[in-house]
Amino acid sequence: MSATARKQGPISRSQSQALTREALLDAAEILILEQSIPGMSLRAVCTQAGFSQGASYSNFANREELLLAVMERNLEQKARSLEEMLSNCRNGDIDETLEAVVGWLDTISHRSTWARMAIELRLHATREGIGSSTALFCESGR
User: Is 28's pLDDT higher than 50?
Assistant: First the structure.
């Protein structure tokens, strides 16, 4: 336990579950990139995150729901990054705005992890067919 956590006292059940969920999502991302989606199991995700398999079932109904959560979290992070960049441009002139946009695009191009993750998720959606939740999510353009 970190010194910060000791100073703040015990965490609530909902905080603990949120931390567990984030750890499972982090572990799933690592395994997707290392093994691809077909090679990833809920048991492996839990082991990677340091939890029993029950942790996955208290956070996700199945592997498909976990994959959707990984996708949603990554898309939300990209949207926040873009919104932050745009909010910084609101009061600037056109040159400052273009410089900010180019800078933001440059940081995106250096994030190969997200590109690899997006490709894996798209491949999974294609393999599973249009009826899967991941496929529907990809087709919706979210």
Answer: yes
